[in-house]
## 1
Amino acid sequence: MVDSIRIVLVDDHDIVRTGLRSFLEAQGGLFIVGEARDGFQAVQTVQETCPDVVVMDITMPGMDGLEATRQLTGLCPHAHILALTVHEDKQYFFEMLAAGATGYMTKQAAADELVAAIHAVAQGYVYLQPTLARWLVDDYRRLAELSHVADADQVGGVPTGEEKVLSKRERQVLELVADGKTTPQISEQLGISPKTVARHRERIMNKLNLHSAAELVKFAIRQGIIEL
């Protein structure tokens, strides 16, 4: 876990930013180095402060969080974007990941989950709120099914798609992720360590020649698998 994390808070509601600052600074090791109330201020503030994590709202006046994330991904790739929004919405979810965010969670999530998400994205991991992660897995399944159909057509009905690439255990992990299970819950249910669960997730991405949830989403969008 990172000992010291520099954070910029982006939200158009002053009271939300004040509450987040008070809570996060009380956790130890989390330092708020800047605030912004819209996307324009966010881009400027992040460039000036060079934070590790940007906690980004989506719907704001002027430049919204989507456009700010797109710009910051190019201007400040070292700053990891964590979307924190009221929107439990599939379209916003995929668009933020495609824009370059490495985390997505709603404001209805537990406070300790926000802290865990900040630590995760600060270390370069993808953090998706478990109740929303099933959207990504559902579209992965759709991609795999279409690949299976295409491969079967090409080789006379012999399946050569993703179901042959992924191992039985990897498919089990996918099933549990789709059910909204966290890594500790998957670990307990399958009787394997959290590190082993993480390795299975990593292998799934490697076998698809992808390196993050965001890349998987971008690929699916390009292929027309995800409809926005």
Note: Confidence is low (pLDDT under 50) at residues 149-164, 223-228.
## 2
Amino acid sequence: MKLIRFGTPGCEKPGAIDAGGKPRDLCAVARDWSGGNLDPDTLRRLRSLDLAQFPQVEPGTRLGPCVGGVGKIVCIGLNYADHAAETGATVPAEPVIFLKAVSSLAGPNDDLHVPRDSGKLDWEVELGVVIGRLARHVPAVRSLDHVAGFCVCNDYSERAWQLEGSGTWDKGKGHDGFGPVGPWLATPDELPDPQQLSMWLDVNGERMQAGSTRTMVFGVAELLSYVSRFMTLHPGDIISTGTPPGVGMSRKPPRFLRAGDVVELEISGLGRQRQRILPPV
């Protein structure tokens, strides 16, 4: 299934995309795509629904983040060897983990205001993994049993705040709007192999990133198992698995986003995002 959440920010409702590509309102069967409704067994039962029998969502309705009740966003740094090379970093011997503020979550097509005092706003297309079942010290061979689904993430970053000051990366990662997810949450039956997905990102129609999850240093199953050693993963938690090469800070000369730019990105089977970059507020 392809699960969506639609409506105004903070008041999103659950829905799904039917076989014809139309969004349907599933309020009659779920309160939200969060908590127990993300359990893989529950989602398997939902696949028997005839989506054509549910009301169609009004055209033009905003899509929100495709998962609700997110407790934490766990990000993986330098997880593509070619991206590590373009930044001058050594490929890590084990996954690099950092956290992104939940308040950064946004819908897939929400506008993004340049943060005040920002000068190095950058982009990162990433595969997101949404947890559906509590995971703690999970072996890699069983870790995918804890996955509710997969989605597109754009890990926006303010590079000066991330890399040029003191402290951790978090300052450059957690600003409002820096975490668009969606348009939909694809359950695992939609993506039999998450390590065979092509991905791209454009700025103003110019291709900046093009890659594939085939080139991850650490695959999805290994990442989930590894993270679950250090923190309990709860339904709704998101693991953002890293980005391929082509980020703005590594271009020659570096290129960063400004008001008026349009960012578009897509991962095969997971849909497309589009964000307009607006002036600070």
Note: The first helix runs from residue 40 to 46.
## 3
Amino acid sequence: MPFAVAARCYFGYLFATRDAGSDLRKDIALPVWQCRGETEQSSVFPHGTADEEAARRFWRETVDKNFGPAQVQGDGKKTIEIWSHVVAEYRWQITSDVPHFWSAGQAQKIWDELFSKYRRLSTGALVRTP
């Protein structure tokens, strides 16, 4: 059975070409929260920031079918773009003035705002709970 949700919170794993060509199911929506530090080097991608944007687009559009505009949340340290136009939400977070970074409370935030809101039925269908 597919995962109900994923948090890909390491910049180096956002390879669009690898994801697009992998065994990942592209026909099953998967809520995703991706993040990186603002000063993290884009050189970890084979094609720099172009590959980062391609990876974001892959998860947001190819997997989760989110094409509308993002809602933006910010707290002065983190900026989070949220696409939630369909069943599977997609979030992109950048934390200011840091390289690769996991801030205090980040795991709890991901749980509260994304992980706890989704589950998979035995049929594989994704369900968002209130």
Note: The beta strands are 6-8, 32-37, 71-74, 78-83, 90-95, 118-120, 126-128.
## 4
Amino acid sequence: MRRNPVVKEISDRLIPVIVLFGLYVQFHGDFGPGGGFQAGVIVAAGVVLYTLVYGVARTQALIPPSAVRRGIALGLLLYAAVGFACILRGGRFLEYGVLGATQLGGQHLGILLIELGVGITVAAVIVAVFYAFADQRAE
């Protein structure tokens, strides 16, 4: 397959912007539209674009499937850890207010951590599914 140099150059410039926008959506999500799910999809779209331009082998060398599986587990563990931290601090599961010195501070911290866990999990799951389909196609 012949690589198009225009697509490669445009992708090289767009992929960092896509990932940066994903991080913006991730960390701005508790102040406006966005959050973990949207950010995870945006970051995964950057990985998919990289894979389409450079190939599965190069992408898997950069982001190994084992790292993707660890990302799925890390996101889920972060989500659960926030819930159990709320219980240990005297609240109910995912009652964020008990996490901070003030109710508002605790809610902000809890939502930020939950959304981060969701973002990591969503990005990792989408990349894992893409890897699975790309590996089947390669066979």
Note: The mean pLDDT is 91.
